[in-house]
Amino acid sequence: MKVSKITIIMNLILFILKLFAGIFAKSGAMVSDAIHTASDVFSTFIVIIGVNISHKKADSTHQYGHERLESVASIVLSVMLAVTGMFIGLNGLEKIFGGNYGELEIPGVLALIAAVLSIAVKEWMYWYTRSAAKKINSGSLMADAWHHRSDSLSSIGAFIGILGARIGFPILDPVAGLVICIFIGKAAFDIFRESVDKLVDKSCDEEILEKIRNVIKAQEGVLHIDEIKTRLFGNKMYVDVEIVADGSKSLNEAHEVAERVHDAIEREFEMVKHCMVHVNPK
Fold first, then answer.
1. What DSSP character marks residue 205?
2. Which residue in 110, 173, 218, 228 could disulfide with 165, CB within 3.0 to 4.6 Å?
3. Rounded to an integer, what distance in angstroms lies between the CA atom of residue 236 and that of residue 63?
4. What is the DSSP letter of 219?
5. Which of 29, 72, 248, 31 is nearest to 158 (CA)?
6. Could you tell me the domains of the chain?
7. Confidence of residue 279 (pLDDT cuts 50, 70, 90)
8. Which is nearest to 181 in space by CA: 40, 14, 36?
C-alpha cells in the first residue's frame, strides 16, 4: 500500500507535467505519453483493490482463499494497458498515413525536458515497485512495475521522436507514438499471459521443482519420491507429493515421515500455501 500511494502521487505529478509540456510544446508523442502515465494511476488503483481482496481469509464459499483474485486484477490491468496502447497507435497511424507531413507541428524544447524527466522518474518507479513485488511475491504489483517500465520506454520513444522532429523530421513524432504503442502492447501481453497461467493451475518452473525434490529427499524416512505435482494459485502455490516409506513401519511412524516432509516444504518455500503428502509403502 505504501508503494502504491507513492507511485500514484508521482504519476499524477508526471501526468500533469507531461500533458502541459505536450500541449504547449505541440508534441503528439508527449501527449500520448501523458495518457500512458494517466493509465498508470488507474492501474495502481486496480492493484490496491486486487491485493486487498486477495488477502481476505478463506470463508465458507471460498475455502481455498482469495489469492486468485489478484490475478484477475492483473488481467484487468493488462486489458487497460492494451487499450491505452491501441489508441496511441491509432493516433500515430492517422498522422503517419495522413500524408500532410509539412503541416505537422515541430515540438518545443519543453517536451524534450519532460521526456528526460519522465525517463528518470519512471525507471526509478519500476525498480522501486519491482523490489516490493519480489519481497511480497505479488503478481499484480509486479505487473504494475512493468507498467512503469513500459512508460519509461515510451518516454524514450517520445524523446527520440521529439528530437527527430526538432532537427527536421516531423514525421518522427507520430512514429514515436507508434513505437510506444508496440512497447505497451508487449507489456500488456506478458502481464495477461502470466496472470492466466496463475488461473489455470500452471505448474511451477523446473528450478523450484528441483529445490522441492532436494528438500523432500533430505527428510528422514523418505526412501523415494513417486510423484510431485505443483500448481500456481495467485501468488501462492500448492504442492502434492507421493513419497515411498518403509512399509513395515506403523501408521504413526509413516504419519511422522509425512509430517516432516509437509513441514519442511511449507517452511522452506514461502510461496507454498499448502503441501499434501501421500505415503506409499515399499
1. P
2. 173
3. 15
4. S
5. 29
6. 1-200 (1.20.1510), 206-281 (3.30.70.1350)
7. very high
8. 36
